[in-house]
Specification:
The complex is a heterodimer of chains A (174) and B (189).
Chain A: H1 2-23, H2 26-29, H3 42-52, H4 95-107, H5 110-117, H6 127-133, H7 149-159, H8 164-172
Chain B: H1 2-27, H2 32-40, E1 72-77, E2 92-96, E3 102-106, E4 112-116, E5 127-133, E6 139-143
Antiparallel strand pairs in B: 1-4, 2-3, 2-5, 5-6
Classes of the chains: A mainly alpha (174), B alpha+beta (189).
């Protein structure tokens, strides 16, 4: 009886991974994608984020959910280049850092960003928009007031067509 | 007996709650987000001891925030170069805040400079620059390339040698000039 009971238990234990495996499909293993505004148009927007948000005492910190890399802030370690770049140095923000900033902006609230891109939710449902406007509590204060050049720059990018002139206007502000 | 047992219930609850409250008060209700960075600074060195010459290169406002110590609006240390720990005396540090209020101060013997929040409050963001007299008698002006958005401690960002997370120490020259800076001898230092 004991041996029989052990056999039943062993069979059950063997079947568990088979049962679980039968519940997992290819769709579960595929990478999750979420709609996000244009990556091509993001470079100028990244500069606004770097200037206004990405200082080392704010979002230029590795532990931030919205983390911003940039020449004058946090540098992204460069793979295969030994040591990477130095903060506040002469090397401009790299493509890899702009790419990381893009994914940081889109990845902060990916489902909500997808809904905004699909026009299912308004732009100001995004934390990325509310906090710099200070319509949500933000330790950094009102960084990009509603209607300012920088605010409109970001809103235009999220809306689907970045207004480069407004982004440049924001960057020209001290 | 029944009425005694019903009485013990609330008394026991009060006693338990009181014990919890005492434990919480005894622990100081410390916030590790505040205390851990302060603890990481290490103990106060015997020399020079608490005062304007102490803890150079550390993030001053971790303590000087009106709680533990005198309240500063901004403070920091100026060194010879980003890599070296040689403090510079007499460097002029200028800070301009978001509403145009200008702070100016000279570093002391330890390279430290600071402003009291009561007499010199600031509105962020800030702009900062350092004007140094080099050992050869020439002057060099270093203007900070980015703003200071919320941390009045220079060493909150300017930590150690240059790296991915720090531009290096606040300094007078990018590399050791010729002749080189000499560490000042401070009284009490």
């Amino acid at each position: 009886m004991k041996d029989r009971a052990r056999g039943v238990v062993a069979a059950l234990i063997t079947m568990i991974p088979l049962a679980v495996g039968a519940c997992i499909t290819d769709a579960d293993l595929a990478p999750t994608r979420s709609a996000c505004p244009s990556e091509t148009d993001f470079r100028i927007v990244s500069q606004v984020y770097e200037r206004r948000c990405g200082t080392l005492d704010c979002h230029g910190q590795a532990g931030r959910p919205f983390r911003v890399y940039g020449r004058d802030g946090l540098r992204k370690p460069a793979k295969g280049e030994g040591g990477g770049y130095v903060s506040g140095g002469m090397v401009a923000t790299t493509d890899a850092e702009v790419d990381a900033n893009y994914h940081s902006a889109c990845g902060l609230e990916p489902e909500r960003m997808a809904n905004v891109v699909a026009r299912k939710e308004p732009i100001d449902s995004l934390t990325l928009v509310r906090k710099p406007r200070l319509t949500e509590a933000h330790k950094g204060g009102m960084v990009l007031p509603l209607g300012s050049a920088g605010d409109k720059c970001i809103a235009s990018w999220i809306s689907g067509k970045v207004n480069t002139a407004l982004c440049v206007t924001e960057l020209q502000r001290p | 007996m029944k009425h005694l047992s019903t009485l013990f219930g609330p008394i026991a609850a009060l006693a338990f709650g009181g014990a919890l409250l005492a434990a919480a008060l005894g622990s100081g209700c410390a916030n590790p987000a505040v205390t851990d960075p302060i603890d990481a600074l290490g103990p106060e060195p015997e020399s020079p001891g608490p005062g304007p010459l102490h803890r150079r290169g550390q993030a001053c406002l971790l303590c000087h925030n009106g709680g533990i110590a005198r309240d500063f609006s901004a403070a920091g240390t100026v060194y010879a170069t980003p890599e070296e720990k040689i403090p510079v005396t007499g460097a002029t540090v200028t800070i301009v805040d978001a509403v145009g209020h200008k702070l100016e101060g000279k570093t002391n013997c330890a390279g430290n400079v600071f402003w009291d929040r009561e007499s010199d409050p600031v509105v962020f963001p800030l702009r900062a620059e350092v004007l140094c007299t080099l050992p050869d008698g020439t002057t060099r002006r270093n203007v900070m390339g980015s703003r200071i958005d919320r941390d009045g401690s220079c060493s909150g960002c300017h930590v150690g040698s240059p790296s991915a997370t720090s531009p290096g120490r606040v300094s007078c020259a990018p590399s050791e000039p010729n002749p080189a800076f000499v560490a000042p001898a401070c009284e009490g230092g």
